[in-house]
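Assemble and predict.
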Amino acid sequence: MREVPLSLNSKAFLEEVLRQGLRPDARETYDYRNIQIDFGSKWGHAEVILGQTRVLARVSALVEKPPVMRPSEGSLLFFVCFSPMASAKFTGNRTDFSTVVTRLLERTIKETRVIDTESLCIVSGEKVINLRVDLTLLDFAGNVIDASCIAAMAALSHFRRPDFVVNGEEVTVFTEKDRDPIPLSVLHIPITCTIGFAGEKILVDPSEEEESVMDGFVSIATNTHHEICYIYMGGGVTLTPALVSKCCEISSLKTQEISAQITSCLTKDATARKTSEAAEIEASKPTAISSISLQEKMDKMLVEDRTNVCETMETDDQVESAQYGSITIRYIDETETLDSGGVGTVQEKETKEPTKLATISTPEKKESFPGF
Amino acid sequence: MAEVQEIPATPTMVMCGDAFAFPQCTELTVGPGLRYIKNTVNCTKPGVLRATNKSVWIDRNSKRYVPVVEERVIGIVAGRIGEDCRVDVGAAHYAMLNGVAFEGATQRNKPDLKIGSLVFAKVIAANKDVEPELSCVNKNGKSNGLQVLEGGHLISCSLGLCRKLRQPTTPLTAPLIAHFKLFELVVGMNGRVWIHSDSVKHTLCISMYLGRCEYLPEEELMPLLKDIVKRVESSA
């Protein structure tokens, strides 16, 4: 499917809207679109929906040999995929813009040392934990940079790495079942804030329509400690120092809000996990009935079936077998009767048992009765 | 394979694979999404099945446009090849529009179609093996409203919304008519609506309204418009 080109009419209209001080979706100047952060069942799975833009982030860890240059540090790699289902613009090949986003995330998150990579070292020079963040753009509606950054930070804050123990030469890396995995040591949370420029107007969190008419943009990453982590400028717009410092202030304010939102979503996810774990434990507790052994269970079933079967019979033979109703309980210890009846269908038992009773039980037990 | 049922009298939701026995008749019109095989009508697309004595069809909503002859569409000029224009109508292929196919146009006097211009045209040829063709003029040389659209704003929507808007008794446009004094809507069957009004704010309100009104019940349409107008006025 081809991308719909922007018509001259729409371009002129959007420019006029911006000139009049409005935004095409009637937002205020400094308003972000609605941000929704969801976590998956696996650790490190985060999905961010910013307006209509959707980004999925997955963090995974591998235990590998470190490079010779950095023997006692783990690594953090970013992979960004602009999938064609996000927009008709993307063909699935690596575009310039996807490289820009990857590089921006590396600079914002890796080079500002968000994750303490030395804590990822297991045995210096031999084994380290290498983290990998895979970001997939699912829906494109403007401002991919912010959505990707929020998704990456949410996923890294959510992720748990495998626990390990080093005993001299021996290293044991525990699986999730053996020992609870440990959260990463996230030292600070940088969030980017993208601000577009169209003539005089600034557009915080530009939507797809705004991006199609804006002259350029700036992405400023700040953290909650009011530190600027990274500034990236795109497009051909000249900025004055006053404008840049204003954008930094906006970014700082937005970062406070968004970091608070990430933290609250993480706590919500933690409580949700606890309640669902408790529910699972309740469900898997053995009840009074199920604590009986399998043998006894089968005994019970067979007795019930045989008594039912005996009730329906009418011949003399069967009357005898009805008498044997109480005696057949002993037969259950014999492997033969178990095999014939066993845990099969009720119909099978009905057809087989009468004959069995007749052949096995009648001669022997009749004799034993007088002996009693 | 689904069991063959009788065609239901009231419109019912059908899924792909449902089959219906149609009473024998001399002429039967079968709409898109249906196939007539061995006296049964088989559904190949999901939707609402409707039937009359002589025709049966499926009502469904979609976003991809397939050109059909005689339909009026809004196209965006994407390029020029000699005298013809390549026009994007949202279909799999570009459509061709002759530069002279306008009312009162001659070789020396024809409209200037720049790349990105909007054209409201009619599909005159739509074969699946050939590029579709458009024209802004009928056999008698009259345009009947087909022309290059100047100004205004173009929005994309679903094909179902376009069909609803074209119905003369639609409740969707009633709030707009009540609220705005002067506005113009041109609805293309290819999922595009061109909006033009006397002020930028009004056009913005109408475009936001059309984006959200499709599935709302009738009583919620006016409140939606009022809410949008309030938001646009307050954000100025």
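Chain B touches chain A through 28 residues (CB under 8 Å).
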